[in-house]
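Continuing the batch. This is chain 6 of the set; chains 1 through 5 are on the previous pages. Same settings as before, nothing changed between runs. Recording input and output for traceability.
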Amino acid sequence: MPTPAEFFEATKYMGIATLVMGGLTLLTFAFGWGFRFRLVGVTGFMGVLTVGCFGLSFQPLVRTTVPGAIPFQTVYDSGGAQVVIKVPDTVTDSQLDATLRQAATNLFNPSRLGPQNGQATIRARTILHEPGGRSHLLYLGQVQPVPNEATGEAVTVTLQPDALAQLPGHV
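Output for chain 6:
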Protein backbone atom coordinates (compact mmCIF):
# COMPACT_ATOMS: atom_id res chain seq x y z
CA MET A 1 0.00 0.00 0.00
CA PRO A 2 1.41 3.44 -0.89
CA THR A 3 2.63 5.60 1.95
CA PRO A 4 1.71 9.27 2.47
CA ALA A 5 5.17 10.26 1.15
CA GLU A 6 4.50 8.31 -2.06
CA PHE A 7 1.12 10.01 -2.46
CA PHE A 8 2.83 13.40 -2.02
CA GLU A 9 5.35 12.47 -4.71
CA ALA A 10 2.51 11.38 -7.01
CA THR A 11 0.79 14.73 -6.32
CA LYS A 12 3.76 16.57 -7.79
CA TYR A 13 3.61 14.61 -11.04
CA MET A 14 -0.18 14.81 -11.23
CA GLY A 15 0.02 18.58 -10.71
CA ILE A 16 2.55 18.95 -13.52
CA ALA A 17 0.41 16.78 -15.83
CA THR A 18 -2.68 18.83 -14.94
CA LEU A 19 -0.89 22.08 -15.77
CA VAL A 20 0.34 20.64 -19.09
CA MET A 21 -3.18 19.49 -19.92
CA GLY A 22 -4.52 22.93 -18.96
CA GLY A 23 -2.02 24.56 -21.32
CA LEU A 24 -3.02 22.16 -24.09
CA THR A 25 -6.68 22.98 -23.42
CA LEU A 26 -5.95 26.72 -23.75
CA LEU A 27 -4.10 26.00 -26.98
CA THR A 28 -7.11 24.14 -28.42
CA PHE A 29 -9.32 27.12 -27.58
CA ALA A 30 -6.86 29.50 -29.25
CA PHE A 31 -6.90 27.47 -32.48
CA GLY A 32 -10.62 26.61 -32.28
CA TRP A 33 -10.13 22.86 -32.52
CA GLY A 34 -13.26 20.74 -32.28
CA PHE A 35 -12.26 18.61 -29.30
CA ARG A 36 -11.50 21.55 -27.01
CA PHE A 37 -14.49 20.97 -24.74
CA ARG A 38 -13.49 17.36 -24.18
CA LEU A 39 -10.11 18.56 -22.95
CA VAL A 40 -11.88 20.84 -20.45
CA GLY A 41 -13.41 17.73 -18.88
CA VAL A 42 -10.10 15.85 -18.94
CA THR A 43 -8.30 18.78 -17.32
CA GLY A 44 -10.98 19.11 -14.63
CA PHE A 45 -10.82 15.40 -13.86
CA MET A 46 -7.04 15.51 -13.62
CA GLY A 47 -7.41 18.39 -11.18
CA VAL A 48 -9.71 16.27 -9.02
CA LEU A 49 -7.20 13.40 -9.08
CA THR A 50 -4.40 15.79 -8.09
CA VAL A 51 -6.37 17.13 -5.13
CA GLY A 52 -7.24 13.55 -4.10
CA CYS A 53 -3.59 12.48 -4.13
CA PHE A 54 -2.71 15.59 -2.13
CA GLY A 55 -5.39 14.73 0.46
CA LEU A 56 -4.11 11.16 0.79
CA SER A 57 -0.63 12.48 1.52
CA PHE A 58 -1.79 13.83 4.89
CA GLN A 59 -3.43 10.85 6.61
CA PRO A 60 -1.57 7.56 6.89
CA LEU A 61 -3.49 4.62 5.47
CA VAL A 62 -1.58 1.91 7.30
CA ARG A 63 -2.63 0.68 10.70
CA THR A 64 -0.15 0.64 13.54
CA THR A 65 0.49 -2.63 15.33
CA VAL A 66 1.35 -2.55 19.03
CA PRO A 67 3.19 -5.63 20.34
CA GLY A 68 0.95 -7.70 22.60
CA ALA A 69 -2.30 -6.31 21.19
CA ILE A 70 -5.07 -8.68 20.18
CA PRO A 71 -7.56 -8.25 17.34
CA PHE A 72 -10.60 -6.12 18.18
CA GLN A 73 -13.79 -5.06 16.47
CA THR A 74 -15.19 -1.54 16.46
CA VAL A 75 -18.81 -1.97 17.53
CA TYR A 76 -19.74 1.70 17.94
CA ASP A 77 -18.23 4.83 16.47
CA SER A 78 -20.09 8.09 16.71
CA GLY A 79 -17.63 9.69 14.32
CA GLY A 80 -16.82 12.03 17.14
CA ALA A 81 -16.07 11.55 20.79
CA GLN A 82 -17.19 7.98 21.49
CA VAL A 83 -15.78 4.71 20.18
CA VAL A 84 -16.44 1.26 21.64
CA ILE A 85 -14.34 -1.75 20.74
CA LYS A 86 -15.10 -5.41 21.46
CA VAL A 87 -12.41 -7.72 22.82
CA PRO A 88 -12.73 -11.42 23.65
CA ASP A 89 -13.53 -12.43 27.23
CA THR A 90 -10.18 -14.23 27.42
CA VAL A 91 -8.21 -10.96 27.36
CA THR A 92 -5.49 -10.36 29.95
CA ASP A 93 -4.51 -7.06 31.56
CA SER A 94 -1.41 -6.62 29.40
CA GLN A 95 -3.27 -7.56 26.21
CA LEU A 96 -6.05 -5.10 27.01
CA ASP A 97 -3.55 -2.32 27.67
CA ALA A 98 -1.74 -2.97 24.38
CA THR A 99 -5.04 -3.27 22.48
CA LEU A 100 -6.31 0.04 23.84
CA ARG A 101 -3.03 1.72 22.86
CA GLN A 102 -3.29 0.25 19.36
CA ALA A 103 -6.89 1.40 19.05
CA ALA A 104 -5.87 4.89 20.17
CA THR A 105 -3.09 5.02 17.60
CA ASN A 106 -5.37 3.87 14.80
CA LEU A 107 -8.62 5.64 15.69
CA PHE A 108 -7.65 8.98 17.25
CA ASN A 109 -6.98 11.58 14.59
CA PRO A 110 -7.24 15.37 14.39
CA SER A 111 -10.61 15.25 12.62
CA ARG A 112 -12.29 13.37 15.48
CA LEU A 113 -14.42 15.75 17.51
CA GLY A 114 -14.56 15.50 21.27
CA PRO A 115 -17.20 16.61 23.77
CA GLN A 116 -17.15 19.98 25.47
CA ASN A 117 -13.78 19.34 27.12
CA GLY A 118 -12.34 18.23 23.78
CA GLN A 119 -11.57 14.63 24.79
CA ALA A 120 -12.47 11.61 22.74
CA THR A 121 -12.75 8.22 24.46
CA ILE A 122 -12.27 4.65 23.29
CA ARG A 123 -13.87 2.09 25.61
CA ALA A 124 -13.18 -1.64 25.49
CA ARG A 125 -15.93 -4.10 26.34
CA THR A 126 -16.74 -7.76 26.20
CA ILE A 127 -19.92 -9.80 26.58
CA LEU A 128 -20.27 -12.28 29.42
CA HIS A 129 -22.73 -15.08 28.82
CA GLU A 130 -24.45 -16.38 31.93
CA PRO A 131 -26.36 -19.63 32.39
CA GLY A 132 -29.98 -19.38 31.39
CA GLY A 133 -29.28 -17.47 28.19
CA ARG A 134 -28.61 -14.08 29.78
CA SER A 135 -25.70 -11.95 28.66
CA HIS A 136 -24.40 -8.62 29.85
CA LEU A 137 -21.83 -6.10 28.68
CA LEU A 138 -18.73 -5.63 30.75
CA TYR A 139 -16.63 -2.52 30.17
CA LEU A 140 -12.98 -3.37 30.83
CA GLY A 141 -11.16 -0.10 30.27
CA GLN A 142 -10.77 3.04 28.26
CA VAL A 143 -8.17 5.25 26.64
CA GLN A 144 -8.23 9.02 26.16
CA PRO A 145 -5.81 11.27 24.26
CA VAL A 146 -4.82 13.03 27.48
CA PRO A 147 -1.07 13.18 28.14
CA ASN A 148 -0.21 10.99 31.11
CA GLU A 149 2.11 13.05 33.29
CA ALA A 150 3.13 10.04 35.39
CA THR A 151 4.48 8.03 32.44
CA GLY A 152 5.04 10.81 29.90
CA GLU A 153 2.93 9.05 27.26
CA ALA A 154 0.55 10.80 24.87
CA VAL A 155 -2.52 8.79 25.98
CA THR A 156 -4.01 7.78 29.30
CA VAL A 157 -5.14 4.16 29.60
CA THR A 158 -7.51 3.30 32.44
CA LEU A 159 -8.26 -0.36 33.19
CA GLN A 160 -11.15 -1.51 35.39
CA PRO A 161 -9.66 -4.13 37.75
CA ASP A 162 -13.05 -5.09 39.22
CA ALA A 163 -14.41 -5.76 35.73
CA LEU A 164 -11.32 -7.70 34.72
CA ALA A 165 -11.71 -9.87 37.82
CA GLN A 166 -15.14 -11.01 36.54
CA LEU A 167 -13.65 -12.52 33.37
CA PRO A 168 -13.57 -16.31 33.23
CA GLY A 169 -10.11 -17.67 33.96
CA HIS A 170 -8.74 -14.31 35.14
CA VAL A 171 -6.09 -14.55 37.82
